[in-house]
Structure formats: C-alpha cells, structure tokens
Write a structure and sequence with these properties.
Elements: H1 2-11, H2 22-34, H3 43-62, H4 66-79, H5 83-95, H6 99-108, H7 110-114, H8 117-129, H9 133-143, H10 152-168, H11 172-185, H12 190-196, H13 204-213, H14 221-234, H15 238-241, H16 247-252, H17 277-289, H18 293-306, H19 314-323, H20 327-340, H21 345-357, H22 361-374, H23 379-391, H24 395-408, H25 414-425, H26 429-442, H27 447-459, H28 463-477, H29 482-494, H30 498-511, H31 516-528, H32 532-545, H33 550-565
Helix pairs in contact: 3-4, 4-5, 5-6, 5-8, 6-8, 8-9, 8-10, 9-10, 10-11, 11-12, 13-14, 14-17, 17-18, 17-19, 18-19, 19-21, 20-21, 21-22, 21-23, 22-23, 23-24, 24-25, 25-26, 25-27, 26-27, 27-28, 28-29, 29-30, 30-31, 31-32, 32-33
Length: 572
C-alpha cells in the first residue's frame, strides 16, 4: 500500500494548473508577441496610454468601482510622475478605506506631498480615520499655517480638522478657537458652523455675534436665518436678542406670496426650503424645549417620513417619543437605526432610551455608554446617562455625568438644572441653589428652572417666595403644567391659602386625572377646609391608584374618625 501512495503522489501533482510543455510555451509566447511586434513604447505612446488610463479611472470612480480604479491608478502613477495622478491614486485608496495605504504612499512620495495642499489634507484625514489623534495634530501643526490667506477655502478645511481633533481629545477651548477660525476663513463651512451654532458650545451672546459676523453673499441671507432658527430652537431667550417676532405673531404673519408663515424661519427662506428637513428639524427642536412634545413629535415625524435616516432630526424625535411614553415606536426606531447605522451614536442612544422607558436602567446605562464611546460629544446621551443613574439613586455617578455635560457644553443650562435637581433630592439645598442660579443665568426664561428654585425655597420654608417662583414658572410655560400646578398647590397649603391651593390641585388633576399624589393633595386641602365627605372620597380615589400610599391611608383614617366624631344634626 505504501507503493500505491507513492505512485498516486507522482501521478497526482500538488499543483492543479495545467502543465504546458516547454515547446508549446515558447510557441504561445511567439503568438502573443506577434500582435505587438513593431510597437515601441516611446513617450508619445506612453502619454496616450496615460490618457486612456485616466479615462478608465474616471469611469470606474463614477461607477464606485474603487478596486478597479486603484488597479489602473497604480499603473498610471508608475507611468506618469505628475502630482495629480498621485493624488488620484491616494484618493482611490481613501475611498476604498485603505487609510494606512494612503499614508504609506504619501510618505513614499514625500517631496510631492510637501508642496501640494490636497495631499496634505488627505494625509490629515487618513490620520483622523485611523484615530491617531496625536500624530494628526502634530502633522497639522507642522504642515499648515494659522494665517494662510492664499487659499482661504483650504485654510478653512485645515482649521476645521484641527478643531475636530481638539474636540475629540476634549480640549474644548482650542476646538472652539479653530472652529471659529474655520468660519472666518470660509463663512460657508457648514461643519464648523453646525458645531458652533445651537450646540451650546458658546454663550448666547457669542453665538449671536458669530451669526452677525458671517460675510455671506447678499442672496444667501436665508442661510443666516436657517442657522438662527437652530439657535432659537435650543434657546428661548435668543428670540429677543435676535429681535424676532413672538410666536403668536409668527403664526399669523402672511408672506408676500400669500403663504401662511407657520414658524420662524419660514418667512425668510425660499418657498421650497420651508419644508426642508433642516428647517423642520429646527422647528421641532423649538417645540421640544417649549414642552410641546406632541407638536415636536408630529413635525419630526414629518421629516423622518420623507427621510427615515435624517440624523439632525432623530435625537429630538426620539426624545419626544420618550416624553410621550411611546415605547413600541422607540423600539421600532431603535431596531431600524441599529440595522442601518451600527456605528452611529444616535442608534445606541435610541436603544438606551427604550430600556429607560421600560425601567431597565442598568441596560439603559450600558447602551448610553456605548453611544458615548462612539461619539464623546453627543450631548443627549450624557444627559440620559445621568438620568439612568439618578433613577437608581446613584447620585455620585449621576452628578459625574451631568458635570461632564456641563464641561463639554458650557452654553447649555440643562446640566446645571439636573445637577441642582439631584442636589435637591439629596437635600443639599445650598448647592442646589447655586447650580440652579447658574442655570437661570444661562436660560432666564426656562420655566423648569423657576420651578426647581421654587422647590428649593419651599424646602427652606420660604413659602411666599416659593409661590411667586412657581407662578412665574407657570407664566413662562404659557400652558398649564401638572408638576408646576401641583407644587404651587403645596406652596399655597403652607401659606394657608386653601382656596388657591385647591384651585391649583384641581388644575393639575385636569391635566393628569390618574395622578395619586394630586388626588391626595385635593383630599388633604378639602380636609383642612372641613369638607370631610369630599376629602374621604378623594382619598379613596387616590388609594385605588396607589394602594401603598401611607400618608393617604393615615389621613383617610383621621378623616373617617373626625367625621364619626361630628355631632349629628337631628333637625328635620
């Protein structure tokens, strides 16, 4: 059998290709060469080949056949020594996500790279894609100038890249400086403006000044209004600074062509841009900050029906779904986003929101953390991360998340508001007061800030001040809010103004008839007024919703005993 194995090994070679006899190979070579006899590759012929290769590369590039384009571009670089052809090959590598290969190619042709801005830009972008932040920053510092006035567009791009690197490495101060330089070089640099406007990286005054300083073409003033809409959406006080008409006036204003202007900036845009995704996204964000979650949901839904993956509208859409407690819709949106954008922070943020809604806070924290790993500067995830810790009474971790948000987004009042609320919960009233005053300085017209300051005044037993602050919160809100009304009812109770306390509690009950705490407030007020039968009825209603309410149970027993001890009127 050993001989059989040996014979099989000799008769069945390891190489599976056909073996051509030497004589046949020579003959085949002569036949192939016969077609090219007389063809010499002189310079005119090589130039002609290069032109054909450029055409093939362009055609492959347009058809997104990057591997094919790379094959021909590699041959082109060997034949030609032009910088433009080198850039073409580097761009093909970049499009095919071969970033290290781009860097090796540009290092190999260092002389050409040093003298060409496009190649420098490509090298910097490859270093960013490789997440080699320190090397990228060194490269940008060594190869670009802060005062490049020869090509302002290119200087703007380099400044933008430096801003991005600084932001990723959490050097917020330098990031802002370079983003502002990018806008100074090129007022049409959207990425830099998008980071600076409406993202709470700057104070309101600085954002307004930046908007006013944009040197746009006269016909492009609509762009200024589009960015202003984003600013107004996240800062209610920006309307007064920008001298915009109030919301009521906007809703009734009619533009020159007879179209009803629904909201700013519709009346300042070309007609066909009124329903653009970015316009509607800014409007939906404004409704969210005003507490009109239903309207926010409807407008953002309109954007996503036209473009289901409109990333600018997704965070506020998901936030409105959370506030409206639409668990099944959040689950569906999260599933769609994870399938479409598995490396996007907003996808995992949405997953975390779903688990937050179903009260699985540990899972929620895990997915919020994943979203922040993908994008460290995604502000909604930092706030939600803090909320998930707060729901588990883990104050230290919640405060750490909120403080990080306040450091990354110094122009936002929300982190300070939530830090203050957490301090109220842990009865650190002095610290809560300081944080809430900081929030009020950033957002002087946010009703939630006034509500929380009123709660601090209540716990400090300054009940008259609490009443004033809570009434101011209701005035700023524009529409009644259950929490504001309930808190105001408790403040009036402490002031022994029972009629107004009952009025506030009844308003809260109309807004949420299933709130046991509001029903207990009504019952307790009625008991203090001596209306025991009505009080007993409301205590029973509250306990039917929340049976383990110890205060309601005790006060019900007192009310029943008090009613039993009353003398019976025997008059007929």
């Amino acid at each position: 059998s050993g001989g059989d194995v040996e014979r099989r090994g000799r008769s069945q070679p390891w190489c599976t290709c056909d073996v051509v006899p030497a004589a046949g190979c020579a003959e085949s070579a002569r036949e192939i060469g016969a077609g090219t006899m007389g063809l010499t590759y002189e310079q005119p012929t090589v130039d002609s080949i290069c032109r054909r290769l450029r055409g093939l590369i362009q055609e492959s590039f347009q058809n997104h056949l990057y591997v094919t384009a790379i094959f021909y571009a590699d041959k082109l670089v060997s034949l030609s020594h032009e910088v433009g052809d080198l850039y073409t090959l580097a761009e093909c590598y970049f499009k095919n996500r071969e970033y290290r290969r781009v860097l090796h190619l540009l290092k190999k042709h260092g002389d050409a790279t040093r003298d060409d801005g496009r190649l420098k830009l490509l090298a910097a972008q490859c270093l960013m894609e490789c997440r080699d932040w320190d090397e990228c920053l060194r490269y940008l510092e060594d190869n670009t100038s802060a005062d490049d006035t020869v090509d302002s567009k290119m200087a703007s791009v380099f400044a933008l890249l430096r801003g991005k690197v600084y932001e990723v490495t959490e050097n917020q101060e330098n990031a802002l400086i370079w983003y502002e330089k990018a806008v100074q070089f090129d007022p049409y640099c959207h990425e830099a403006l998008d980071r600076l406007i409406g993202n709470h990286l700057l104070t309101l005054d600085k954002e307004v000044a930046l908007l006013g300083s944009l040197k746009l073409h006269q016909e492009d003033e609509w762009l200024r209004h589009l960015y202003a809409a984003k600013l107004v959406a996240s800062r209610a006080s920006a309307s007064a600074v920008l001298e915009l008409p109030p919301r009521e006036a906007q809703l009734t204003q009619v533009s020159g062509d007879g179209i009803l202007a629904r909201d700013y900036p519709t009346q300042h845009l070309p007609r066909d841009l009124a329903q653009n995704g970015h316009t509607l996204a800014a409007q939906s964000t404004r409704y969210f900050y005003e507490g009109d979650y239903k309207e926010c949901y409807l407008i953002s839904k309109q954007v996503l029906e036209d473009d289901p993956y409109h990333l600018a509208a997704l965070p506020v859409h998901v936030a409105s779904l959370v506030m409206l407690d639409m668990k099944t819709v959040v689950f569906y949106v999260a599933h769609q986003l994870v399938n479409a954008y598995p490396s996007s922070s907003v996808a995992w943020f949405t997953v975390g929101c779903y688990y937050y809604l179903i009260k699985k806070y540990e899972h929620a924290r895990r997915f919020f953390h994943k979203a922040l790993t993908l994008d460290h500067s995604f502000s909604p995830a930092w706030i939600a991360y803090g909320h998930a810790f707060a729901q588990h009474d883990e104050s230290d971790q919640a405060l750490a998340a909120y403080r990080t948000a306040s450091r990354l987004f110094p122009g936002s009042h929300l982190p300070w508001l939530f830090i203050g609320m957490e301090y109220v919960r842990t009865n650190s009233l002095q610290l809560a007061q300081q944080c809430l005053e900081c929030a009020r300085s950033l957002a002087p017209s946010d009703p939630h800030v006034y509500c929380e300051i009123g709660v601090v005044a209540f716990y400090k037993k300054n009940y008259a001040l609490a009443c004033d602050l809570l009434r101011e919160a209701l005035r700023l809100a524009g529409a009644p809010d259950e929490t504001f009304c309930s808190n105001l009812g408790h403040a009036f109770l402490k002031c022994k103004v029972y009629d107004r306390a009952l009025e506030a509690f009844e308003q809260a009950n109309r807004l949420n008839p299933r709130s046991s705490s509001v029903l207990v407030g009504i019952a307790f007020t009625l008991q203090l007024q001596g209306k025991l039968e009505e009080a007993i009825e409301y205590y029973h209603r509250a306990l039917s919703i929340q049976r383990d309410d110890a205060f309601a149970t005790d006060m019900l027993n007192y009310a029943v005993q008090e009613a039993a001890d009353r003398p019976i009127d025997m008059e007929l």
